[in-house]
Specification:
Blueprint (H helix, E strand, L loop, with lengths): L5 E6 L3 H12 L3 E7 L3 H10 L7 E3 L2 H6 L5 E4 L6 H10 L3 E4 L7 H14 L3 E3 L7 H10 L8 E9 L4 H6 L11 H5 L1 H11 L7 E4 L4 E2 L5 E10 L5 E8 L8 E5 L2 E5 L10 E8 L15 E6 L4 H19 L6 H21 L4 E3 L1
Parallel strand pairs: 1-2, 1-4, 2-3, 4-5, 5-6, 7-11
Antiparallel strand pairs: 7-12, 8-10, 8-16, 9-10, 10-11, 12-13, 13-14, 14-15
Helix pairs in contact: 1-10, 4-5, 5-11, 9-11
């Protein structure tokens, strides 16, 4: 089996784990080998509800998945407060780590995870799926084209959805002991990650939250906004708003000196088989300012696999390279996660201190 598909173990039966079970089944180089929950009854119930093969090993504890010698890699859809404990344990057992976002409660905890992964020589990746969609590579081509796009000047993003009443009572994302980052961690992670992606993963020089923060009675952020600045004179700025309190929106606008790029479905494409964005190059106002000289170009990018299966496929390919050919883990994924976490921490610091300017 050394040259066969990567055998995944899933630790935790969160709702997002349903999506990853399907993704593992679709990826040509991966297979689901084991599933662990806090009780064997919950693992069995999850397996039955999601039509898992009888060949999948079911365990009544997280540790049993890590003790299974046939598990190559683990996917952890656990509450953020449990990430450090179980990701470190997985790495120390020699399991490659695919970790749901946000990666950690803060950069200090993430560093513990990354240090454990590097010490054991295992691959780390967080579960930001949109980075693996072919649309993202196409957008990179345009943003990197200095002639058509120009110098990066401004970025704006919103990431929002309005869940039902039960969400605000029972969901882990509104409980301070489970996911204390709330909407900032769950949705702001996408916005901050998109800003860093557009900026070539250059860290901003400073960030500041805006005074529109909404918290629940337990102090968890339900809605917030922030501005990120690059350069000593703040030559480039990025603004985001994330919220559990508004209609679903996942917009991203990236504006350069010569062109602009827009999309409405950053994290989850509106359609699974393809995704699009609009690019407007070199537009000016026509005479009398009654229109634009250029209409936006709609760029449609098809995909044979959904983005979550492409993520599994890429992660599994890296694991196969390490397992079969002695390759080193690809460090860019941990570096991207750590920079996203550093900026998220700075926004959280600004929020907690009354929206002060925080320098990175």
């Amino acid at each position: 089996m050394a040259d066969g598909p990567v055998r995944f173990g899933i630790i935790g039966c969160a709702t997002i784990a349903r999506k990853l079970c399907r993704a593992i089944a679709l990826a040509p180089n991966a297979t689901l080998h084991a599933l662990g929950s806090r009780s064997i009854e919950k693992a069995r119930s999850f397996a039955a509800a999601n039509g898992l093969s009888g060949a999948v090993k079911l365990y009544g504890s997280y540790g049993d998945v890590l003790d299974d010698p046939l598990v190559d890699a683990v996917y952890l859809p656990l509450p953020t407060s449990l990430h450090a404990t179980w990701a470190v344990a997985a790495a120390r057992k020699g399991k490659h780590v695919l970790l749901e976002k946000p990666a950690a409660v803060d950069a200090a905890e993430l560093d513990r995870i990354l240090e454990a992964c590097e010490a054991s020589g295992v691959q780390f990746m967080d579960g930001t799926m949109w980075l693996h969609h072919p649309r993202t590579a196409k957008m990179r081509e345009i943003v990197s084209d200095r002639g058509r796009f120009g110098e990066l000047k401004s970025i704006n993003s919103i990431s929002m959805f309005a869940p039902n009443r039960e969400f605000f009572e029972d969901n882990i994302r509104v409980k301070p002991d489970l996911d204390s980052l709330g909407a900032l961690g769950d949705l702001g992670w996408y916005c901050i990650g998109a800003f860093l992606w557009a900026a070539g993963y250059r860290l901003p020089s400073a960030v500041s939250a805006l005074p529109d923060v909404t918290r629940n009675s337990a102090g968890v952020v339900l809605s917030c906004s922030a501005v990120l600045y690059w350069g000593l004179a703040h030559e480039t700025a990025a603004t985001f708003h994330c919220s559990f309190l508004a209609h679903v929106s996942m917009d991203l606008a990236v504006v350069g000196s010569n062109g602009s790029l827009h999309l409405k479905d950053l994290a989850i494409p509106i359609e699974e088989g393809s995704a699009s964005f609009e690019f407007t190059p070199g537009a000016k106002f026509v005479d009398l300012h009654i229109g634009w000289s250029v209409k936006p170009e709609k760029v449609l990018v098809p995909t044979e696999l959904p983005q979550e299966a492409l993520m599994i496929q890429e992660f599994a390919s890296l694991v196969q390279g390490i397992r079969n050919s002695g390759c080193s883990p690809e460090r860019k994924w941990l570096e991207m996660s750590r920079k996203t976490q550093l900026v998220l921490d700075a926004v959280k610091k600004s929020i907690d201190a009354g929206c002060i300017l925080v320098h990175l």
